[in-house]
Each structure stands twice: as structure tokens, then as C-alpha cells.
Amino acid sequence: MKKIFFTPGPSQLYPTVNRYIKEALALNIPSISHRGDKFHEIYSGAIAQFKKLYRVPKGHYVFFLSSATEAMERIIENLVIKDSLHFVNGSFSNLFYKVATSLSINTKKIEVPMGEGFDFNKLKIPINFEIACFTQNETSTGVMIPMEDIYSFQKRFPKSLIALDIVSSAPFVNVDFSLIDCVFFSVQKGFGLPAGLGVLILKPNVINRAMSVKKKKTSQGSYHSFENYLKYYEKNETPETPNVLNIYLFGKVCQDMNKKGLNAIRKETIIKARKIYYLTQKNNKFTPFVKEERFRSLTVAVLNIAGGSKQILNYLKEKGYIVGSGYKDFKDKQIRIANFPQHSLEDVESLLSLVLRYN
Length: 359
Ligand SMILES: *Cc1c(COP(=O)(O)O)cnc(C)c1O
Prior knowledge:
It contains eleven helices and 14 strands. The longest helix has 21 residues, at 262-282. It has helices at 17-26, 37-54, 68-79, 91-102, 147-156, 204-214, 226-233, 244-260, 262-282, 310-318, 345-358, and strands spanning 4-6, 61-65, 83-88, 106-111, 131-135, 137-138, 143-144, 161-165, 182-186, 198-202, 286-288, 300-305, 321-325, 334-338. With 359 residues, it is of the alpha/beta class.
């Protein structure tokens, strides 16, 4: 039976990926040298397509890592001497906090309950921190941080760096890359690709910062220190043998998204999100977990299910629709529906009509 994955990651593949994998095999992409011309072309081509899609300024760096979790570690290792600040309202923002803590720096966290957003004007913000870390879209709870809030935070604390996790909101969320120092995501969510590739976008000034941090730290990591990475980046290479197949596929999907246009993708995402949340008005068994609409994610909808989520998840699974369960403590109480570019309006509509028929 044909299955459609509405899980928040790994998720449904972008519709053309199947064809590109076959094409890559026919072209022997998995066997080519990662130091040769063909690879240089794939690497620089993928970065060019991505930069065009997401309007990333020319001078910004785009580093391919193994995952978003790796990006968290590299950011802290390379840029923080003593203090980081974390806004935590779910499992992934807490992961960033934990990664930083295990690197033996002073981490501070500002925590609000799961399902709630941050009111930055009311929170007591400590003064000394070198970097503030935000999870723009908290995949575990479906809470998002409006970008305006992050820009105004930055105006208030112009000396600190900003690190932004956009794993489950890219490429939907509109980021002004000229304003944010470090932005990262992995590709198995909103880019509809197999897992195993992280993308880290750095403002040029970040490299200078890493160089000055170097003088004050015993280690910034090894092969993926920003300094070492940059040496290879300038040759269109990575220090290690990277996930060549996925870099190839990433370039192809970005190219397809460019053909469609990010504006069209964004408009469609909003329309699909409205339809998904409309469920909660049609049937009072479903309620949005995030009460305040301003913080409600459009790319990962988290719904409380009266009476529990197990049955409905199984029912949908039998029909070929794989929907996410709640995260951790909410596993049996909620469903999470991903709304990524690879989820067509038709597929969302058939999922929703099944959900409504269930009751
Ligand atoms: C999935 C996810 C991550 C972790 O991504 P990996 O590729 O597994 O490292 C981090 N942050 C958010 C918000 C996520 O949704």
C-alpha cells in the first residue's frame, strides 16, 4: 500500500527525490571522489541553488554537517568561551542546552512550560552571554517564535551572537540572513530528503569571532572547527568524505523549489495549515496544544485528542497515512501533523477528511 508520511521528521520525501536517487545511481554519484571536479560542481551547485532559494547573501558561508545536532555542538565549540543562553520550551531547545552544557561552558536557560511561547518583554534576561540560542519552531510541542521577536531581542543585545534552529520550519520561515549570525537545519524535515545532512549558514563576521575565540580556548574541536572547515570550503570541499549523495539531492530539491518559487510554497503552507487547524473548530475532540495563536506553528501542528491518540493514529496508519504521535510525555495524548512543502494540498485534504470521518 502507498504510504504518506505526515510525521515531523523523517517525513515524506519531496516528490522528485525518487527520480533523483535513480538518476544519481545511474551517474555513479555515490562512487565519485569527494576531491574531484564532478564533486566540486555538485557542491558549489547545491550551495548556489540553496542561496538563491533562501536569499542568503553572497558572502555568507554554507557548511554541510552531518545533522542539526552537530550544528549545535559546532556553534558552541567554535564561538563560546564561557556563557551561552538558551530559550527552552520543549525537547529540541533543551537538546541545544544539553549539548552546550556537556561542552563545559556556563549555560543558562530560560524555560517556559511546554506548549507556551516566550514573552521576551516580560522575561528576566541575564546580562552576560556570548550567544543566545533559539529554536524557532519547537517540533516537540508545535510552538514557534515569531521572527520579529528574535530581531527585537537582537536589537536589545547587539553584542551577543544569535544561533537559530530552523530545522522544522525551513524553508517556510522567512529569515533575514543578514541579521542572524548562525542558522541551521537538517534536511529530513521541510526539504523532504533522507536524513544524514545538516546545513549551517554563517554570517561572514562569525568566522572572525571564531578566530578570536581560538586564542582563548584550548580546543574548538578537530576536523569541523570553523577554521579547518573554511580551508576546504574555499576549494568546494569538506574536510571529511561527506554525504555526497544527499548533497546532490539537496541541490536538486532546491532547484525544484526554485522553479516553484518560495513564495508559492509559503502561500500553500499557510493554506494547508489553516485547513489543519480548522479541524479543531469542526470537531471539539481536537484542540490545538498551543493556546496562543501567535505562537502556533504552521509547519508542525500539535493537537490534543480527547480520549487519547493511539486509536486514531492506528486507524490512519491502516489507510496508509502515517501521522506523528505526541512527543515523550504527550505520546498517547496528542498527534503531530507535519505540513512541509512535500505535502500536497490534495494529500492534506484527504488526510483531513479521513480524520473527520473517523468520528
Ligand atoms: C529534528 C530536530 C532536530 C534534530 O535534528 P537532527 O538532524 O536529528 O540532528 C533539532 N532541532 C529541531 C527543532 C528538530 O525538529
